[in-house]
């Protein structure tokens, strides 16, 4: 028989356990879930594309040998003879520039195919290069695969050579056949490039884009389709490489038409857009898209300007680097790309914000939650983030960096949103030691403020205020950087 005091002890212990459970909340009750997403959202392929930041275009074909930009379609294939063609050199150049995706013009407007298409004889099969047995696309794909670089292809809808162009049914069948060849024969393709370029005197032609896009997705499920109207990536609306200072990844695709879209709308996007369709900025390292002996690469200052107005405005930069008549990227272009990559690394390799203490107006879930301001200083720029409490004053969201010792010296402020849950920020400001120094609108994946007034010296605090947002903001990363090439009051480095 149990002793009376033993039963009493058990009762006391049980009472104390119950009391502790009431006083100390369970671990489960402490966990605050992430906020709801704000639609539309990017898909997996779009997120991966956005993180590339810089990709490369290779314009190469008969135009390279005729010193022209738009071929006539009547070129003799015998002119195509790049006797030193080396796709390994192309991809090595891309890798040195920090590029993870390269797009090749498999066919430009002249209709000349860089692969042995069985649907035309206007191709490498009738050129002296490798006695008509060569395949530029295959060599390009092999070189990229060996170096872990992804590939993209451009198949121009406008074909100035094929006799069926202008006959809707016949030409669309021809185009789809060539598209199937490229998507079926050469392995994974991560971006397919369509445009609406067409000469004013070209025959009337209706492209069956919906059929094309459906076929692309059937063959390549993780591909991004580029055009004025997506559906994966949209054109930015110009060939300067510049996005708008307001740059939404969201847009309404029903207002877009390939080859006939409003450039301003493409450039800025739409905060009320129903589709996630991020902008891609295409520009050439030279004046032209194809290689011309008379042209030289843009200066370093020009390329940095493009970088800040593309990557720094929520876009991916597609930089064209054309191979020459030998089939090589010219030494001057290779050298300029090395300088460009070195400059980017110099600017952004050091984040002065890492030396600062950080606080915020509030944080979701309180101090024990997973959404504190310290998240903006880690290396995850997508899935960890600071977000304020839902009860915070919606006109006064802020995050503040304060130096722990030496004053700060910087001229670039980087801000990034957790776009996996939607693009949110409409307006923001940057304050230094209580003085506003910059205004901004959208942020998106990455916003780079290169300070127009020059370098900030001897700063002790930097505050980023979010003063307009679609729902509570989600800030994934903040950086303070010094750009030694930027001097708005004098000559920028060349």
Q: In percent, how helical is the residue content?
A: 10-25%
**Strand element count:** 20
Structural class: alpha/beta
| Poorly predicted regions | none
Shape: globular
Strand line-up across the major sheet: 1-2-3-4-5-6-9-10
How many strands, what sense, and barrel or not for the largest sheet? 8 strands, parallel, barrel
The number of helical elements comes to 11
Roughly how many Å is the radius of gyration?
A: 27 Å
How would you characterize this protein structure?
The protein is of the alpha/beta class and 494 residues long. Helix content is 24%, strand content 21%. The chain is built from eleven helices and 20 strands. The protein has helices spanning 4-23, 27-30, 44-52, 63-66, 87-96, 136-146, 168-185, 209-219, 263-268, 300-308, 331-348; strands spanning 54-58, 101-107, 150-155, 191-193, 224-227, 233-235, 250-251, 275-276, 279-284, 316-320, 356-360, 397-403, 408-410, 412-417, 425-432, 435-440, 447-450, 456-459, 461-469, 475-481. The strands form five sheets. The protein has an eight-stranded parallel β-barrel with strand order 1-2-3-4-5-6-9-10. Strands 11-12-19-15-16 form a five-stranded antiparallel β-sheet, with no helix packed on it. Strands 17-14-20 form a three-stranded antiparallel β-sheet, with no helix packed on it. Strand 9, helix 10 and strand 10 (316-320) form a beta-alpha-beta unit. Helix 5 packs across helix 6 and helix 7 packs parallel to helix 8. The longest helix is centred in the first third of the chain and has 20 residues, at 4-23. The model has no long low-confidence stretch (mean pLDDT 94). Belongs to the glycosyl hydrolase 29 family. Residues 1-29 form the signal peptide. Keywords: Glycosidase, Hydrolase, Signal.
């Amino acid at each position: 028989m149990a002793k009376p005091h033993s039963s009493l002890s058990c009762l006391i212990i049980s009472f104390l356990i119950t009391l502790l459970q009431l006083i100390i909340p369970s671990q489960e009750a402490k966990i605050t879930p992430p906020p709801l997403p704000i639609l539309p959202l990017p898909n997996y392929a779009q997120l991966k594309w956005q993180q590339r930041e810089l990709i490369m275009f290779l314009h190469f074909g008969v135009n390279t040998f005729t010193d022209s930009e738009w071929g006539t379609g009547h070129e003799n294939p015998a002119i195509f003879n790049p006797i030193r063609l080396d796709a390994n050199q192309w991809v090595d150049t891309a890798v040195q520039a920090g590029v993870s995706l390269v797009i090749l013009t498999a066919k430009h407007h002249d209709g000349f195919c860089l692969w042995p298409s069985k649907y035309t004889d206007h191709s490498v099969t009738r050129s002296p290069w490798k006695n008509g047995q060569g395949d530029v696309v295959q060599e390009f794909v092999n070189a990229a695969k060996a170096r872990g670089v992804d590939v993209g292809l451009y198949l121009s809808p406008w074909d100035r050579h094929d006799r069926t162009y202008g006959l809707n049914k016949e030409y669309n069948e021809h185009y789809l056949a060539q598209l199937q060849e490229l998507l079926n024969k050469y392995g994974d393709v991560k971006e397919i490039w369509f445009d609406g370029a067409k000469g004013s005197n070209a025959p009337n032609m209706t492209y069956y884009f919906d059929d094309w896009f459906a076929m692309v997705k059937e063959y390549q499920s993780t591909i991004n389709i580029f055009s004025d109207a997506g559906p994966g990536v949209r054109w930015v609306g110009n060939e300067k490489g510049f996005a708008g200072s307001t740059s939404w990844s969201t847009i309404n695709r029903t207002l877009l038409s390939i080859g006939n879209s409003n450039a301003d709308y493409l450039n800025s996007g739409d905060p009320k857009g129903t589709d996630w369709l991020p902008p891609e900025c295409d520009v050439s390292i030279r004046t032209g898209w194809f290689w011309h002996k008379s042209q030289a690469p843009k200066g370093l200052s020009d390329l940095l300007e493009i970088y800040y107005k593309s990557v720094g405005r929520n876009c991916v930069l597609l930089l064209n680097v054309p191979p020459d008549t030998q089939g090589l990227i010219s030494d001057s272009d290779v050298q300029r790309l090395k300088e460009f990559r070195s400059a980017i690394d110099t600017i952004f390799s050091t984040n002065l914000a890492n030396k600062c203490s950080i606080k915020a107006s509030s944080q979701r879930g309180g101090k024990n939650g997973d959404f504190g301001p310290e998240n903006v200083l880690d290396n995850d720029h997508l899935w960890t983030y600071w977000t304020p409490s839902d009860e915070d004053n919606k006109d006064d969201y802020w995050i503040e960096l304060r130096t722990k010792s030496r004053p700060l010296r910087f001229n670039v402020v980087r801000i990034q949103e957790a776009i996996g849950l939607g693009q949110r920020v409409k307006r923001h400001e940057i304050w230094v030691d209580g003085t506003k120094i910059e205004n901004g609108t959208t942020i998106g994946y990455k916003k780079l403020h290169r300070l127009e007034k020059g370098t900030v010296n001897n700063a002790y605090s930097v505050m980023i205020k979010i003063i307009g947002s679609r729902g509570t903001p989600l800030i994934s990363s903040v950086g303070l950087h010094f750009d030694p090439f930027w001097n708005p009051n004098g000559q920028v480095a060349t």
